[in-house]
Amino acid sequence: MNEQLPFISETSTLPLLSSMCRVRCGENFRVHGKTVSRPMLCLVLQGEGVLVLNDQLHKARAHQLFVLEKGTTIEAASRSGITECILLSMNTVQLKQVRGEWKMTSNPCLPFQWSTGPMPVRHEQQMVARMEQLYTAYQGVQQEHFINIHTQLHELLQYISENRLEANHEKVDPALERSIMYMHRFMGEGISMDQLAKIAGLTPSSYSRSFKKAKDMSPTDYLNRLRIEEAKQQLQQDRCSIKEVAESVGYGNEYYFNRKFKQAVGISPSIYMKREQLRVATASVLGLEHNLSSLGLEAIATLNGFTDQELSENEHQHKLTLQFNKLRQSKPDLIIADTHHEPYHDKLKSIAPTVLLEPVQDWKQIHSRIAELVGREKQALDHFKQLEFRTLDVGKRLQQFFDHERVTLVEVKPPMIRLQGTINHPLSHLLYTELGLQPAQIAPPEHQWVDYPAERIPLLDTDHLFIHRLSMHPASEKLLRRLKQTSSWNRSPAVLGGNVHDISSWLMMSWTPSGRHRIMDELIHIAEQHAALSHAGLIGQF
To answer: For a disulfide at 89, which of 18, 234, 314, 395, Cβ 3.0-4.6 Å?
Structure first.
């Protein structure tokens, strides 16, 4: 069963085509804070870039469809030389029969209860063909023009509805959608799986299997997530009661609600209510304190349990004891820790409630999680938006400097030399995907990194070497001297061309907004310095 546009009945809502235009822009295309005045569809025909809809970031690509509700704010920038799209705006009218006469009123909503954001669709080429056919008809002046274009509009919307996909590219099942609408509407009441299965027209077992396949979670987990999200909204209101919130979202037992909330969010409802005033400490090797600082909150204490290879076990334990003492004395309300500190979880919990962040390679997930814990989600969204647009600009500048020259990142990490790979790390994604730098073939394509003894490192066949020394201890200096004595180093095009660049700790900096800005600052400085030396004819004389 699919969604259907309504036939004319006593009350009907029909979308009507308001306007269509085809937009073609160059590489400097940029949109700043436009507001949509009526419901729209935006189909990207060619190019790629960044689209920000109501502060939500999306990557745009060719043949991708976006839905825009009235009032949506838009910011956009292109990565491509040419960007082209079709914009289709609609007016929705409501027809109502009163005493045998039809009354028509305007209704500024989208069909099928669609909401702002990307709309994945099967058979994209067919969708593009239908959209272009409608655009051609819209420009024509043939007989019965009005009826023709509105018939094509309804057929297009119906086609999109019947072929839209879930985020996991499974086809949307309208029966499951009806059960989800029921969950939204009646989450405060008792909802059984039998009820939901009946609404979907399936047996309970078939419903559970179909739901999990479409949503990657069970119906029960999905309902719990809806309830927790609604509870989070209510807990941010003044003078709310945890007991009343628990009851309003369907948890009759306050203690059960507390347990489910903490399980989902990481902190109790009582701490969540005052999260913007918390005294927060961190236990991290990833620089989580810099995430907090970016969000306008300074950590009252920091602990780093990283095992320094150049310290003895006694020295390491002494250093760790001092850090724990300072942490305890600071009396935090909350400790945010990364997975490197899981062995110390019980000890940290004895000091203050502790949230151990899940191990993920997406730095944005970590930053968003921290922002939620301290009530600064809006700041995090602003960071993502600013970084996306700056990355676009810096990437274009770096392309002019580096052109197709190859780059390689080397870390001096006693007792080994580490070659940074091209996957599964925020730094690799920044350098090679977002900024578009060209990795050398020696950069491991299937690993985060590969370690080598200095004497066995392969030929550093790259045009630029970015060198980071983990520390300035004698062992690091000795290891670097050994590397510089190898033929792999001395035959390197980067060394022969004078393109060896000392850098900061990019690997750690890539996990935070401020760190990513600093990496781009250093890259621009390196590029400009390289260009100046090239212009002066000094490259290759070192």
So the answer is: 18
